[in-house]
Specification:
321 residues, 3 domains, 5-stranded mixed beta sheet, alpha/beta, elongated, Potassium Channel Kv1.1, Chain A, 15 helices
Amino acid sequence: MQASSSSLERKRPRLDFQQDALVNHPTLYFDDGNVILRCQKTLFRVHRSIVSKHSPVLRELVSVERARETMRGHALVVLDDDREDMEALLQTIYDGMRVDFPSITAINFPLVSSLLRMSAKYRVPRLHDDLVARLRTAWPPTLPEHLAQWARAQAELLKPGREDLIVHPAAVIALLRASACADTALLAALFYDLSRRVWQLGPPFTGHHLGPLAHADVERLVFGVARLRAEQAAVAAVRPATPHPACATAVGALWDGPGRALVNAANQMAQPVEDLDVFRLAAAAYLRQHGCAACSEAVGRYLGELQQKMWDGMPAAFGLV
């Protein structure tokens, strides 16, 4: 059955409207481009050689053999990405893979999130590795780096007019999961940071919420906190041996005083690595005054080893290995 001429006429304006609704991207529609990428209603006219150079996925999509649809005399590739995500990726590619921000904050995190997801999806390793490296700077995976950053953060808290622009670690964990990034050391540092913060499981969905996390990661967090609390309490339960028995009284005073405070802190949402570092430094100073240098060094080394063991055990504590 053939369609009537009136029905065809009714359809034509709709098709014309759909074509008119498409818009060229204001900066990423190059006159000399030879392939068009369509994301929703936005058209990107780019250079096949440039996008192919950085992404094997795009190389395949824009290849002459693969891109069989055409528009305006050029190959057309229709993508299911958001306009903003593709804009961020293409802009970074055309900028020489340069990401212009010194640190990750709440202001630039949406861009970081977009770029990390897109670099994983389109396999842009240089960009992906750069962004993960920046996350590892924000959440250091080694104990010395973590303690140094913690000291800097404590100093920042004392500055007048300071604004809290820190990205909540739950959002970063969710981003790494969505990007299929299995950096265990980075995830462990993020889970530990999350364990030190005040967070909520239910509504209202404001502030530091765990909503971005998958149920499995919420369970990892809860069990990890319990394991760290138990490990922190165990530190105060065993007094270390000292090279000189005469210093045993001073060691006992330490474990009955600041050591007992560690147990009390373990019953709260504490920061065991940092608490142990404070205890380690205080114990060394106390024993230098009330004991001897050898025992001060031995106890400091003992607590440092416990601290390192606790840090190295973070992946296991949070069920990441």
